[in-house]
């Protein structure tokens, strides 16, 4: 692959362009907003000049509702030899592509499972796809050339290709992406009118749950409208769980001991179901989930402290499997949670204390 056109220079389009230019591919940028395309170009994502002839692949990086229209226009102009999109919903765009009479032999749907709570070209990162699933949804008439071009795109961007049926993809992302986005927003909305004293108590739990609530409402409106039925089905199941959980919580305050026991059992049951579901989430590098031990280090808010900590952990010969940082409200310190193998806990704790680091039990 030598030449690629990216039509739509938002977060995903610009990130793909950055990854491709970094691999020596010539990238041509287009956007309905010329300023967005120029911004992407200024970041090194490619050029806003038109290609001399058909490029090897065109990436349609626009909202789901626009994929069919933009693809039809690109094919009419003969922009590329093969085409793919990166929309987060697949069945609706596929139906529109067919209805508009687009050439589906040279087109394959795609969806990189990567993103951020920020949007636009300035939020783009060349490494955003590294190790992340990239779903491809070929139709029965998708040609080998289009499939191979999409597979090469995924490889150049560092993604992991997964071939799925479009409808199955939409049901899956409703569960693992779209419904969580709404639930995060719903929880964060409770903070809108909350007492300032309560807000100041926000810890890592609420920060984790509400992180993606900072996402762009207009962008998510486009996504959710294209997958509304599947998301509504998931939320209806969640609503049923919430209803039974509310009943169980009320029962905990009942005068009757039997009701209180039933309420406690109800809470335990939903928590255990949550334990089981969370344990199914793939672990590091997509491997089966692994239980690590956590070592918590108290870190001052000074430049270079985090790098010094990581350097000294490396000198101790310990591999950090995962890391999270919990910020302390009103204090210039944070808590760095280092997830490590159980066998590494004792030497890590001893070594860090010998080097003067403060650890939290």
UniProtKB/TrEMBL annotation:
Pathway: Amino-acid biosynthesis; L-tyrosine biosynthesis; (4-hydroxyphenyl)pyruvate from prephenate (NAD(+) route): step 1/1
Enzyme class: oxidoreductase
Coiled-coil positions: none
GO MF annotation list: prephenate dehydrogenase (NAD+) activity
All residue ranges annotated as the ACT domain in the record: 294-361
InterPro entries: 6-PGluconate_DH-like_C_sf, ACT-like_dom_sf, ACT_dom, NAD(P)-bd_dom_sf, PDH_C, PDH_N, Preph/Arog_dehydrog, Prephen_DH
Catalysed reaction equations from the record: prephenate + NAD(+) = 3-(4-hydroxyphenyl)pyruvate + CO2 + NADH
Residue span, Prephenate/arogenate dehydrogenase domain: 2-283
PROSITE patterns according to UniProt: ACT, PDH_ADH
Pfam families, A to Z: PDH_C, PDH_N
Enzyme Commission number(s): 1.3.1.12
Matching PANTHER family: PREPHENATE DEHYDROGENASE, PREPHENATE DEHYDROGENASE [NADP(+)]
UniProt record similarity statement: Belongs to the prephenate/arogenate dehydrogenase family.
Protein name (record): Prephenate dehydrogenase
């Amino acid at each position: 692959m030598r030449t690629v056109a990216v039509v739509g220079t938002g977060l995903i389009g610009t990130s793909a362009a950055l990854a491709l230019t970094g691999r020596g591919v010539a990238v041509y940028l287009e956007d309905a907003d010329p300023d967005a395309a120029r911004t992407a170009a200024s970041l090194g994502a490619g050029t806003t000049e038109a290609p001399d002839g058909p490029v090897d692949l065109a990436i349609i990086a626009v909202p789901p509702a626009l994929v069919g229209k933009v693809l039809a226009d690109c094919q009419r102009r003969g922009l590329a030899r093969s085409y793919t999109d990166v929309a987060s919903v697949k069945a609706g765009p596929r139906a529109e592509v067919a209805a508009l009479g687009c050439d589906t032999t040279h087109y394959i749907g795609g969806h990189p499972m990567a993103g951020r709570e920020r949007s636009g070209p300035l939020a783009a990162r060349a490494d955003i796809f590294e190790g992340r699933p990239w779903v491809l949804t070929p139709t029965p008439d998708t040609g080998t050339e289009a499939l191979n071009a999409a597979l090469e795109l995924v490889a150049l961007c560092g993604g992991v290709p997964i071939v799925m049926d479009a409808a199955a993809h939409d049901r899956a992302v409703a569960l693992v992406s779209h419904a969580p986005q709404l639930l995060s927003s719903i929880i964060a909305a409770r903070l809108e009118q909350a007492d300032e004293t309560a807000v100041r108590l926000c810890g890592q739990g609420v920060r984790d749950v509400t992180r993606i609530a900072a996402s762009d409402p207009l962008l998510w409106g486009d996504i959710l409208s294209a997958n509304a039925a599947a998301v509504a089905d998931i939320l209806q199941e969640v609503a049923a769980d919430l209803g039974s959980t509310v009943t169980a919580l009320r029962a905990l305050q009942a005068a009757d001991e039997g009701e209180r026991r039933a309420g406690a059992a109800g809470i335990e049951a939903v928590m255990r179901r949550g334990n089981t579901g969370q344990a199914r989430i793939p672990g590091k590098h997509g491997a089966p989930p692994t239980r690590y031990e956590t070592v918590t280090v108290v870190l001052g808010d000074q430049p270079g402290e985090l790098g010094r900590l990581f350097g000294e952990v490396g000198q101790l010969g310990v591999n950090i499997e995962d890391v999270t940082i919990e910020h302390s409200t009103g204090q210039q310190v944070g808590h760095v949670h280092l997830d490590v193998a159980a066998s590494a806990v004792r030497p890590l704790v001893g070594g860090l204390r010998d080097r003067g680091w403060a650890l939290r039990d």
